[in-house]
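The data are quoted verbatim for completeness:
=====
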Amino acid sequence: MSNPTPQSAPPSRALRWGVAGSVVVMIAAAGLFYYASQLAAGKRQTNHNEIAVTIHGHACEPNALTVPAGHASFRIINRSDRAVEWEILDGVLVVEERENIAPGLSQVINANLLPGDYAITCGLLSNPRGTLHVTPTAESDAQAKAKPSMVAFIGPLSEFRVYLSSQGGALVKAVTVLQQAIAAGDLGQAQALYVPAREAYQRLAPASQRLAELDNAINARADYFEKREQDPAFSGFH
């Protein structure tokens, strides 16, 4: 005669309340996520002042823009297959930029632009640059007349020049010993020297990042080059 199958004990009241509470939390979290996503989507739809720029593999659409002076918002949409950057350049100076825009996503750049002609980068550093023409307005003309005299900047600029000179010397020294360790094949020493060299550069980054060619040579990511790590133009810390 077989033994009767033992009956499992009914779940305790605490366990039932715990399960019910978890379900409620999940439903509430889902509701909050939906609300937040709808709110964000609504903001994007109602912001008609954003200028959309789509980055493809080797070009931007559009790649020639004209805007009035003052505040401008650009929504940069990445339709390429790698992380990219988009920059507004005044000669070699970076006016505004967004780095590491992931494939399929977008980011907004807010810029306060003076009248004039600018260049814009588009994804890969080897891609053709676009143009940004900023037309004057009555407000920009009034602001130009109210600019302070350059004499007011002599003292602060002199102090900043001394700082850049001293920090630049520290960077050269740190990178030299790092390069020597790499050339000698001493991986452990190179790893130990990388952080001090990187820290030395970060102290200069606010200035160097304003110079596009300099920052691209020192700090650009491999994704910004056609052949990534194998690209001859890829250099610097990364």
Observations:
- The first helix runs from residue 13 to 46.
- The radius of gyration is 27 Å.
- The helical segments are 13-46, 138-145, 154-183, 187-208, 212-219.
- The domain at 50-145 is CATH 2.60.40.420 (Immunoglobulin-like).
